[in-house]
Write a structure and sequence with these properties.
heterodimer; A: 286 residues; alpha/beta; 6-stranded mixed sheet; 4-stranded antiparallel sheet; 33% helix; globular; B: 357 residues; mainly alpha; 69% helix; binds adenosine-5'-triphosphate; binds magnesium ion; ABC_carbohydrate_import_ATPase (chain A); P-loop_NTPase (chain A); ATP binding (chain A)
Chain lengths: 286, 357
Amino acid sequence: MAQSTADDAPIVELHDMGKMYGNIRALRGIDLAVRPGRVTCVLGDNGAGKSTLIKVISGLHQHDEGEYRVDGEPVRFTTPREALDRGIATVYQDLAVVPLMPVWRNFFLGSEITRGVWPLRRLDIERMKKIADEELRAMGIELDDIDRPIGTLSGGQRQSVAIARAVYFGARVLILDEPTAALGVKQSGVVLKYIAAARDRGLGVIFITHNPHHAYMVGDHFAVLRLGALELSADRGQVSLEELTNHMAGGAELAALKHELAQVRGVDVEGLPEETELPATPASSS
Amino acid sequence: MSAQATTPSPPSPPTQSATGLEKRTAERSLARRFLARPEVGALIGAIAVYAFFWVAAPTFRPADSLSTVLYQASTLGLMALPVSLLMIGGEFDLSAGVAVITSSLTASIFAYELTLNVWMGVIAALVVSLAVGFFNGYVLVKTGLPSFLVTLGTFLMLQGLNLAVTKIFTGNVATNDISDMQGFSSAKAIFASDITIAGVPVKITVLWWLLFVALATWMLLRTKFGNWIFAVGGQKDSARAVGVPVARTKIVLFMLVGLGAWFVGMHELFEFNTVQSGEGVGNELLYIVAAVIGGCLLTGGFGSAIGPAIGAFIFGMVTQGIVFAGWNPDWFKFFLGVMLLGAMLLNTWVRRQASRR
Ligand SMILES: Nc1ncnc2c1ncn2[C@@H]1O[C@H](COP(=O)(O)OP(=O)(O)OP(=O)(O)O)[C@@H](O)[C@H]1O
Ligand SMILES: [Mg+2]
């Protein structure tokens, strides 16, 4: 599963992509490919450019250099709607939900189901409530009341609703910006489960995170950003969790992190190398 | 490369089954759902004010007094309605008060100066009112400036234009009487006639008002556009990210305020036959007061169409109630201020009760 095969052609491809904010260079020389049924993890410190990267992919911003291709065809999206129409759906760091609106209205916001002809065209409320409820259950999310304002749900529940929404609306690529950042261990586990569920449905997933541990649990490919450039881009087979952490943290903080990691290792023990095997240089993707 | 890395472990299966999440409190009780409605606070307030004047002023009780109160409420409510929709959509319109006069003036001067059927003036006023709304919305979405500033600019511009243009054409601060012009009686029938319901004369604006409130309620809760209004006011960036046309929604909302200004402007013109060009200033705040009393959140994303109608009704009761009670009308603004603060406290309290689980 970790090895890419020739027949699963990338849906989204970036070639030498760069992005400026005025004269601040937020990204440069980014190469990335997102394939169906695989999870691409983008890691990096605060301000490394992770959010900027997905804003370009999702059509909120345009790139200034290089190429952005969808299904092999160069594109330049001017609105998120265009990206959505190509099957690229994003769950933002702030979740893109309207807190005061009910769960089912949020689920269908921007893609409401209607019936009747204008001027009597109206929302098909019964159907939307039913579908939202079914879809959420299918993803294993049970809510007591689908009419609740979404702002009253927990962070993990909100995140899961947003993922279920993207999956329902036929996303081929699902972009998640730090979905586990504000969550506890249990809630993070729930979200990681939905990421795996989306992958198993054949979606390409871009999973942005600070946490190499979370990344390593579901990732097939890892890209580490540092100061707007790719520091590492490797398949699962070419990099261990320890190396990944090393890239994220830099040598100095590593000892402290290793200590911390030793305590949470229960999550994915098999993937961890022995301490002596820590390579001094990044694994070159050959 | 380490041996482990060449044979990667499959992603660990999620350990936590979501069905295991314990089911929280069941359905919220009906009472809680009712309290969560935006207009509940206003409704309680309206009943209290009604009871107060019922006791304080015997002349407030008969049906034709109610009719007067409703008339007063309707002229405010017809504007408070689109202003509330705009507020739910997250914006203000400070030019709404003078825009009403701009509309009356346009119809009157256009028809009078060109000696046309007054209906031509009515159409011209519609075009101008919608254009003012479009201008507000367009400048707002293009510049990203807060609506407070954009519409403050429009407010000043319209106020100046109203006075200056009227003086150019009539040499006066008021327009000429148009009551003997062609089409006047049919226009008056639509915008300013009296009709009798169960022996009580009622201004037609009351019926229009109730009709529009019903339409707006349907639109807010049952249509796509209504959904978008809540979304752009609640969280603009989220709405944009899921594909809601935010700019278009906001522009249409401003144009609806223009539509309201046109309608009320036409009522004033055909009710009084002539227009005072300096009027309207300050009314924009009354519209906002009605919206806020009616439970619309000042910051957007929450509210209803019925709430501001109740707010306007309270306003009508207070204005007329003071007269019926034989008090000095100077007290009116004071009462309005008390109502506003009281309603805010009540709304906040009600909302807290509703969100407590
Ligand atoms: N709208 C903007 N205008 C100017 N500079 C920006 C803008 N957005 C981001 N930047 C800059 O671009 C760089 C990358 O920011 P970005 O938000 O992509 O980081 P990030 O990796 O998502 O960080 P975090 O982990 O904190 O979310 C930062 O230096 C940031 O200051
Ligand atoms: Mg970010």
